[in-house]
Task: inverse folding
């Protein structure tokens, strides 16, 4: 029986990933900051799927705790999905240095801190799969979202380097670029229906990507082409746009 670790398991996408892998009979380590949400999620998974489910407190920005957190996991996970993230209004984030650091530390530094530890262990074992949820916001900085976007850009580059480094060790790394998804993070936004996925879509694509060893996935296929056009726009044109 394989085991998956979900970092940020109480996120809407994390919950959907947990259900997706539970219905495929994976045992699950659920990790997040909130014990009451974790225990409700564990109970739900146990009742629906009767799998082994373990809960762990995990704070992405408590970097000093990451090594001992990972060492305590028993059994060690075969797959890790790094789902946690943080996004606030860009103008608020720019005006408040605490919000700027929280955005960078949650989406980039925290993810790098825990995944460096897991990657080192997987490299030694010469097996394992690491899945990182990044964002199309990281593909080109836009005035409306460039603090979050730049943290996700760093995370995307990190995952690319990790995939390149670990390939010869038999460890696979998947980068997930979901596009818009209906979750708590985006509930205040008026998202275009046709461009927006549901957490269950993201979870299904992650499951397939792990099985088929895909490298970089967009959940709705047209996001690849939307971002291709956005990236190809010449800077003199792009800088005049209100994006
Ligand atoms: N929704 C979208 O359109 C979209 C698009 C592209 C990428 N993403 C990415 O998808 C991932 C999941 O987000 P979501 O859309 O499912 O939103 P969400 O439900 O708001 O999930 C965000 C999660 O991050 C967790 N978190 C925040 N700071 C943390 C910390 N310091 N330590 C541990 N956990 C922390 C939160 O934990 P609590 O439950 O304790 O609050 C929450 O569960 C994020 O990485 C996000 O950037 C989302």
Result:
């Amino acid at each position: 029986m394989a085991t998956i670790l979900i970092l940020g398991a109480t996120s809407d996408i994390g919950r959907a990933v947990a259900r997706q892998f539970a219905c495929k009979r994976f045992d699950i380590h659920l990790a997040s900051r909130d014990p009451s949400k974790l225990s409700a999620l564990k109970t739900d998974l146990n009742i629906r799927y009767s799998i082994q489910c373990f809960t762990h407190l995990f704070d992405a920005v408590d970097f000093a705790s990451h090594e001992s957190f990972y060492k305590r996991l028993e059994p060690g996970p075969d797959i890790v999905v790094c789902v946690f993230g943080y996004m606030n209004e860009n103008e608020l984030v720019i005006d408040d240095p605490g919000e700027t650091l929280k955005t960078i530390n949650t989406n980039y530094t925290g993810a790098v801190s825990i995944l460096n530890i897991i990657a080192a262990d997987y490299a030694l074992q010469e097996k394992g799969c690491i899945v990182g949820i990044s964002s199309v916001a990281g593909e080109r900085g836009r005035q409306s979202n460039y603090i979050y976007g730049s943290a996700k850009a760093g995370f995307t580059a990190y995952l690319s380097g990790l995939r390149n480094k670990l390939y010869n060790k038999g460890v696979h790394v998947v980068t997930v670029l979901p596009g818009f998804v209906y979750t708590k993070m985006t509930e205040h936004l008026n998202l275009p229906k046709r461009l927006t996925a549901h957490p269950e879509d993201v979870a299904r694509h992650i499951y397939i990507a792990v099985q088929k060893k895909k490298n970089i996935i967009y959940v709705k296929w047209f996001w690849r082409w939307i971002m291709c056009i956005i990236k190809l726009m010449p800077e003199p044109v792009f800088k005049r746009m209100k994006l």
Summary: Residues 8, 10-13, 32-34, 37, 58-61, 83-87, 106, 133, 135, 178, 180-181, 183-186 surround NAP (CB under 6 Å). The mean pLDDT is 97.
